[in-house]
Amino acid sequence: AVGIFGLAYRNLAATLPDLERHVFGVLDVALLQYDVFVHAMLVTSEPVGAPGGGAMLDAPAWVRAANGTVSTPLDPYSLVLLRPCVFEVEDQELARAAIERRQAALGKQMPDLWHDNYRSMRNYLVALHSLGRLADLVRAREASALGGLVYDAVLVLRADTVFLCPVDLPTRLPTILADEAARAAAPRHGAAPVLGRDGRRVWVRSSGSVSAGIVAVPLWGRWGGTNDRFAFGGRSAMLDVYLGREGPAWQLLADGSHKRNGEHLLRDLLKTRGVDVRHTQVVVQRFRPIGTGARDIVGMADDSLDYLRDDLAHTVTGYGGRHWVRFAGKRRRNTTREEICRLSRKAVEGRGTWATARTRAPPLAAVAATAAAGSSLAL
User: Fold this and answer.
1) Kindly report the CA angle at 362 between 357 and 365, in degrees rounded to 5?
2) Which residues contact 356 (CB under 8 A, 6 or more apart)?
3) Which of 45, 71, 214, 316 has its CA 20 to 30 A from that of 274?
């Protein structure tokens, strides 16, 4: 299952080519069967001009590119270009209103983790809600399929990101399948129920030789925790843990113990749920401003190629201390995509999380042959 969440239509015309090349194209070449799921948040107005400033236009919105010379219409249903088998569109303002009601029910002030008058806090909780709905769509598809359907792996991404490197799921899939098979054969001894979204009980393993499943995450943009912009892994670990962060986040907010960002939450949740964390070579840039040209990818400071280079170089060298981030991306290095991908591969190899697999993986050729034969292997 390939899951796409958030503002799936924003700048899709600019991000889709790299998505086709580095995600869908890679899966097609590997002869893997997959279904695409989309949960899109719909906004009825967009800012004109620089992010955070300018007037608001009612839908259908026209938004101005960063250079101020081109206006582009936003089509909320351009998400069909992603060819989803199932999609859901939800009004973001209604989702925010539900968040505000839930916050009021806490009976105390919710912490403003990003110190921007709760703007980022609301966006964060909306994103977690969108992730949870994405998991619901996948489960509903499995339950409604004739003859039964259970996806072998789940890959999750944001549509407002430009992929710089090809996804390495086909290479890692044999290990994920072997891990899933080992988990299915293992007794449930040592597992314990935890509350997932909407109070649903989910069994996860907190100890023992068999993990709660594999989740592969990038080694850049961690901000003291675990990168939460892209991931793939086994079905249960992705649906129950990675996509199921909304409930734990609200519980931590109610307890007053939520740490400073979403990366910290993901890191702690993967650890406490016994997930086997691996790493992926994927690197993406968030497409922040509105427009369709390459010069319209302004983004935040940590999206520039120079910043990503310094971030990955820091990971590769293992240099201690946190002050490096103050200088990251400040010097123009004319960094290329190829250099970014090379550094990312080196960082993943250096960590060696796939080399220390606890389960024996079948050869990739056998997996590809099985998929070509039309078996039940599915993403």
Assistant:
1) 130
2) none
3) 316
